[in-house]
Amino acid sequence: MPHDHHDHSHETDGLSPSGHPYQPDQDHKITRWQTMEIAMRELLIEKGIITAAEITATVEQMDRRSPADGAKVVARAWVDPAFKARLLENGTEAIRELGVEPGVLKLIAVENTSAVHNVVVCTLCSCYPRNLLGLPPDWYKQRAYRSRVVKTPRKVLSEFGLELPDSVQVRVHDSTADMRYLVVPQRPDGTDGMDETALADLVSRDAMIGVAVARHL
Amino acid sequence: METDKIHRWHDMGGQPAGEINREEHDFALWEKRVDALQVLTSTKGYFTVDGLRRVLEDMGEEAFETMTYYERWVQSVNQNLLEAGAYTIAELAERMEQVQSRGETYGECAGPGE
After folding, report:
1. Are residues A180 and A115 both part of a single domain?
2. Which residues of B touch A59 (CB under 8 A)?
3. Please, is A44 exposed, middle or buried when counting C-beta atoms within 10 Å of its C-beta (0-12, 13-18, 19+)?
């Protein structure tokens, strides 16, 4: 790198609006697996199994989904105790109220309190509440996180910059193929007068995975 | 990576592992399309998430360590679709050859798109 290197890669050129490098795609020599994707897609379309429009719509839906959907659910739970109760009782049904389609999977919402902190993993693969958070970050799918967070969660959380006092119990939830977890972070102090939209801005993806807490003012 | 004999390689909870690499990347179009193919064909009943995982797990640890997420997924979706009879391996091979003959890059080979 030339002299303009920054410690914070978000300031570097060539990053997407979300601050990540683009995966090489159109301008490198095509790989065997990219070739396979094109061939499969064309065959499926020709055989009438799927349509090109369905693929476009599915990719667009993927792009539309983001942690903002989950944050909306958390913010509602913060301001509406009855909704929070329904969310903790039956997450699948409760998120439908906010127009989030849970699909076939069971959603279990777990609430952080001053006594309990929850964190989510999928040790077996990469199960993730994508309907609420979009596609998972790379680290969620990698060996290091999957292996270690169940054994030394406090250490892993501290690597994410989250130091929890010993008085807080840490619960690690291991997802399965049939259900997903959403962490409902604690509402920060001093946010009493804020409306749902402003509250949702305090809720990051990482807070809903449980490797962070909601932003404080 | 050392694992005990009780767990298959993918059952990695609690196993020794290194530092978490927190770099992230945005997904490329071809990766999102692989994801979309999985969502659409499984929704239409060609296979289940268990079928997807079965192939991923049988691929083994080396594939996990050396290939990217969607490189593994495209193989698993393909294997499941072959088993479900969506298309034949001969049709796939012929089409892949044809795709590759269109150009050098994904953009050229994928054609103008939808």
Report:
1. yes
2. 29, 32-33, 35-36
3. buried
Angle of helix B29-43 relative to helix B69-84, nearest 10 degrees? Answer: 30
Question: What does the alpha-carbon distance between residue A108 and residue A88 come to, in Å, rounded to a whole number?
Answer: 7
More confident residue, B86 or A177: B86
What's the rounded mean pLDDT across residues A140-154?
Answer: 94
| β partners of residue A180 | A107
Structure-token match 């969502």, residue found: B39
H helix runs in B1-114, sequence order? 29-43, 49-59, 61-66, 69-84, 89-100, 106-109
User: Domain segments of chain B: what residues?
Assistant: 29-109
A128 lies in the same domain as A150: yes
Q: What is the pLDDT of residue A4?
A: 39
Expressed as residue numbers, the domain containing A161 is: 67-209
Residues of A with Cβ-Cβ distance to B24 under 8 angstroms: 20, 137-139
Clarify whether residues A87 and A185 are in a common domain: yes
CA distance B5 to chain A (A): 16
Q: Which of A43, A50, A146 sits opposite B92 (nearest CB)?
A: A43
Residues of A with catalytic roles: 122, 125-127
The pLDDT of residue B8 = 80
In terms of Cβ atoms closer than 10 Å to its own Cβ (0-12, 13-18, 19+), residue A13 is: exposed
Maximal C-alpha separation, chain A = 60
CATH assignment, B29-109: 1.10.472.20
Torsion sign, CA atoms B45, B40, A48, A39? negative
SS3 of B89, please? helix
| Number of domain units in chain A | 2
Domain boundary among A40, A64, A88: A64
